[in-house]
Amino acid sequence: xxxxxxxxxxxxxxxxxxxxxxxxxxRYDVPAGLHKLCLNxxxxxxxxxxGDAPEGTFIRLYIDEQLIGxxxxxxxxxxxxxxxLK
Length: 86
Description:
By secondary structure, the chain is an alpha+beta fold. The protein contains two helices and four strands; from the N terminus they run αβαβββ. The protein has a four-stranded mixed beta sheet. β3 and β4 (79-84) form a beta hairpin.
């Protein structure tokens, strides 16, 4: 498929959103006050995010309905970035 076809809105059925294979992971919609921190890969402490996920859980992070990264819940509930998509 060419770029022109994609721009014209002729996306094939097999073209899926980036987060499709990650939908089994919990989702966290990042509040506006934390956008910059998350985009810069800063770890979030438990008082900065409503984390009740157990240690070792991977979380999908979203800003304005866009997947911006994947973080992992570490010891003491700290949310540590594993991948940041800008």
